[in-house]
Design a protein that fits this description.
The protein is an alpha/beta fold.
């Protein structure tokens, strides 16, 4: 029998479902009446009522219609535009959160802007070149080619190479004092380049025959890029080829140098400088110096060539340096080059440009001494003494330090059309037959396995593309654009060219040691090989997709493209990130090249050489 509850001796009736419902209804009506009474007693604000007719005040109803992802939050304005945030059809926003946010639009509030890491400031590295010295035009052109090699190599290592001249030295207040001193011509030339270096505020000063043939993560290069130099330092085994220091230390040293008592002790090459002015680093440097002494000792053929004819000898030295830069790069990747090829049945044409670049990188550069090694890497394996670098086309990215990877990232529309050999797409096919993020899922499968969300895969790929030292181990391109024309600046050396028809290299390597031809199909060990009929169909499909992806006007195809982008958000984000990253890289170098062209007449640029030649022609015409 159920227990009976009482109150003041009277039994309490049990609450049935009907009574409980009636009670809740009564309480609700009472609450509504109370709220209505209280709000009517509060007078309306005169300021709001006065301005309500003049300005638009955000209302909850407006937010409901404008914000789809979060209908209870008022829509937000996108971040303001940053300077230099657009180039070659790409736009971006730089932020330190680039690796913590998988999709850029959550920060940029713009579906077309990619979220990139902040651009690392390049540490300037200076070298001095006296363009006023009396030399033949052929000699100046040869020196200009050598300076171009120097600039290209240091740029690839993350520096900003700057060529100084007498113009910077003449701006220094000490220049007039130096001209009045009676000193040896060699010593005077050394002091002039120091004055130019002091004018620029110090930093890193090197000869243009000092080259970085080491990996980007080398300890010395990392130290030089940091830009923090507590002492005026030189290296024991480099003579005067490398100095680092800040302006105050350089100014103090120049005061010591220009004292009459000290000038008598200084010799050419900054030899005989009293102790205490420099901190001398006794450690063996990792940089390659091609000073006259090194050439005489290790590369006698090139040294003799310079003695016989300076212009031809310098060109021979330039070829030797370029070969050593290339050989040092090849020795870092003992397992060869991997050109990523997901969905191999129908993407042969899509990766053909990347595959061509890989096979050119596997070639041997032309060299006057092909069996030699860089002076700082005496135990290297020269290109002609080894089997050709292996070029493979795996479907997955392996992230190995012994392998250089080249990835071609397609837009989801491009991959859907080419991989499925379809001339057109529709919504039904996208929703029922297409996979989500097929490219990114395949590429990152070895890194992350299966069952991982697209968010995690996007972050992993972004780190592979733009990580701290990622550019030293991989190159990422987009399928809808041609190969950039400045790849030599990316790698730091002139890339040997291979003929498309005969597969011949410009290097003097025996034919039986050359890599495979460009148009030869890759090994079947890398996956299925497309038939010749399918390859013939790929090119027109790829050209058609390029037009659709580049289209900005609203059409039926662009609407379908937007649907596919929403369906494969991770693949779209990867493509957008790589496109913006490469566009910013190209913009950075193009603008730097444009700025330096004003100061580089005859000093390592094509425009500079042309300007120097025009100036020389005018001078010849002005002679009586």
């Amino acid at each position: 029998m159920p227990k009976l509850h009482t109150l003041f001796g009277r039994p309490i009736p049990r609450f049935t479902t009907r009574r409980l419902t009636l009670l809740l209804v009564c309480l609700s009506l009472l609450a509504i009446a109370l709220i209505t009474t209280l709000t009517s007693a509060v007078p309306s604000s005169p300021s709001l009522s006065a301005y309500d007719r003049k300005i638009s005040v955000p209302r909850i109803g407006d937010s409901l219609s404008k914000s789809i992802l979060n209908p209870f939050r008022q829509p937000s304005h996108p971040p303001p535009r940053q300077s230099n945030d657009e180039y070659a059809g790409s736009s971006w926003w730089t932020d330190w959160k680039w690796l913590s946010v998988p999709f850029s639009s959550s920060v940029t509030l713009d579906k077309d802007r990619a979220l990139l890491p902040p651009l690392t400031k390049r540490q300037p590295i200076y070298c001095y070149y006296d363009a006023t010295a009396k030399k033949t035009r052929d000699e100046k052109d040869a020196e200009s080619e050598l300076l171009l090699t120097w600039r290209r190599a240091w740029w690839a290592q993350g520096f900003q190479p700057v060529i100084l001249s007498a113009a910077e030295a003449m701006k220094n207040p000490t220049y007039g004092k130096l001209q009045r001193l009676d000193v040896d011509a060699g010593v005077k030339g050394d002091l002039v380049r120091w004055l130019a270096w002091e004018t620029m505020g110090g930093g890193v000063h090197a000869h243009y025959t000092l080259l970085p043939t080491v990996p980007k993560e080398d300890a010395l290069l990392t130290y030089l890029r940091r830009g923090e130099y507590p002492h005026l330092t030189r290296w024991k085994n480099l003579d005067d080829a490398l100095f680092v220091g800040l302006k105050d230390d350089i100014s103090a040293a120049m005061q010591e140098f220009t004292e009459p008592s000290q000038l008598k002790l200084i010799k050419s090459g900054m030899a005989g400088v009293p102790e205490g002015i420099f901190k001398i680093d006794d450690a063996s440097t990792s940089l390659a110096s091609y000073s006259p002494g090194v050439l005489e000792k290790r590369y006698a053929k090139v040294a003799d060539g310079i003695k016989k004819g300076r212009a031809d000898g310098l060109r021979s030295l330039n070829k030797l340096i370029n070969t050593h830069l290339h050989v040092a790069w090849q020795n870092r990747f003992s397992d060869g080059i991997e050109v990523l090829k997901p969905h191999p049945e129908h993407t042969t044409t899509m990766i053909s440009v990347a595959l061509k670049l890989a096979r050119e990188l596997a070639f041997c550069s032309d060299s006057p001494m092909p069996s030699t090694c860089p002076p700082n890497l005496p135990k290297c394996t020269p290109c002609v003494a080894r089997s050709p670098m292996r070029v493979s086309t795996p479907a997955r990215y392996h992230n190995s330090s012994r392998t250089f990877s080249i990835g071609t990232v397609p837009h989801p529309w491009t991959l859907a059309v080419v991989a499925n050999m379809r001339e057109s797409l529709n919504v039904s096919w996208i929703r029922r037959e297409s996979q989500r993020d097929p490219w990114l899922t395949t590429v990152t499968r070895d890194l992350l396995g299966t069952g991982v969300s697209g968010n995690r895969r996007v972050i992993s790929l972004k780190e592979a593309v733009a990580g701290e030292h990622a550019t030293a181990h991989s190159l990422w391109l987009i399928a809808e654009k041609e190969m950039p024309t400045d790849m030599s600046w990316y790698f730091g050396f002139a890339i040997p060219k291979q003929g498309l028809d005969d597969g011949k290299s410009e290097s003097p390597v025996p034919a039986d040691r050359l890599p495979k031809k460009i148009d030869k199909a890759p090994d079947r060990s890398d996956g299925p090989v497309a038939s010749e009929e399918d390859v013939a169909k790929e090119l027109p499909l790829l050209e058609r997709t390029k037009n659709v992806v580049a289209q900005t006007k609203s059409t039926d195809e662009t609407k379908l493209r937007a649907s596919l982008e929403a369906w494969s958000m991770a693949d779209t984000e990867a493509w957008k990130f790589v496109r913006a990253f490469q566009s910013r890289r190209a913009m950075e170098r193009a603008r730097w090249e444009k700025d330096e062209a004003r100061y580089s007449s005859g000093s390592g640029t094509e425009k500079g050489r042309n300007a120097w030649n025009r100036w020389q022609d005018r001078k010849e015409d002005e002679k009586p």
